[in-house]
Structures are given as C-alpha cells and as structure tokens.
Design goal:
Strand content: 5-15%
CATH topology: Collagenase (Catalytic Domain)
Largest sheet: 5 strands, mixed
CATH architecture: 3-Layer(aba) Sandwich
Number of helices: 5
Radius of gyration: 16 Å
Helix content: 25-40%
Shape: globular
Order of helices and strands: HEHEEHEEHH
C-alpha cells in the first residue's frame, strides 16, 4: 500500500533528491571494496526510504583526486580526505547537503566503515539522528535499518519507509 504512495510522492517531486537524478561523482581512489560498500550503502538507504525508478541515482567513480588534495567543487560528490593534516583536523566524516558533498574520513580498514558510510549517506538524504539503535544513531551507528530509523524518517517528513 505504501509503495505506490511513495512512488507517487517521489515522482511528483516530494523527495530529498532534486528532480534531475544526475549521478553522484565519487573519488576514483576508493578501493574496490570501498566502492562496493559505498554503492551498497547508498542503494540500501534508497530502498528503505522509498526511492526508486526514475529518482534512483547512480554513483560513478570518475573524480581524480589532485595531488594538492583539493577536490574541485563539483556537485553531488563523494570524496576521501587524503591530506593527513585535514584528516587530523577533521577526524569525522562530513556531509554538506547544500553543496551535495560527502567527505569520508574513513577507509575499509576501519572496523565501522560500512556503518559510517551508511550513516553519512543518511544525512545526505536528510535523515536526522535519533537515540535508538539504527543507521542514524549517532554513537555508534549500526548498519541495519530499524523501526527507529523508519519512525524518525517519517517524522522528519523525508520518507515513506516501511516500518
């Protein structure tokens, strides 16, 4: 019953994505494992939020990270912070919805890589923190979409996810 409603709302513009479902552009320095986790986390959240069809966004690993560590200001990007000074000064991964930019400060070597990536994707999809276990729990997030995530998402007016 909710799936047709969610599809209608998404296709009629009631979604967190712009009407142009242009692809995300990601830093090509991500390893194959990191790429797989980034894509799977993104798609997993889209499914749980209720996005699909024409609103689905792909991820293209086509950004070359320059030697100076300054990535061009291209909209809808996923980058890795490579500068040791930047990583030390900004230990957390960041998201900037206004610029459509996700900056990851983790690697696949970190135990929580998948959970952190899913959590940051959630922010890019306009999800907020809640206090119960779930993807959007601030500390620590878990990699599984929970009833608390769905409830919070609906309360924020972001999605029409199943409970």
């Amino acid at each position: 019953m909710l799936a047709p409603l969610a599809t209608y709302l998404v296709l009629s513009g009631c979604s967190f994505y712009p009407s142009d479902p242009s692809p995300w552009h990601a830093d090509e320095t991500f390893t194959p494992l990191e790429r797989r986790i980034i894509v799977e986390s993104h798609d997993y959240l889209e499914r749980n939020i209720g996005v699909g069809g024409e609103s689905h966004r792909t991820i293209v690993f086509d950004l070359s990270h320059p030697a100076d560590g300054v990535t061009p200001d291209v909209p809808w990007t996923v980058i890795r912070r490579t500068s040791p000074a930047d990583r030390a000064a900004n230990p957390d991964s960041l998201y900037d919805i206004s610029r459509g930019r996700l900056e990851l400060n983790v690697t696949a070597d970190d135990d929580m890589f998948g959970e952190i990536v899913a959590h940051e994707w959630g922010h890019m999809m306009r999800l907020t923190h809640h206090d119960d276990p779930g993807v959007m729990s601030p500390d620590p997030p878990i990699g599984t979409w929970t009833a608390a995530d769905a409830s919070s998402c609906r309360a924020d007016g972001v999605c029409y996810a199943r409970p």
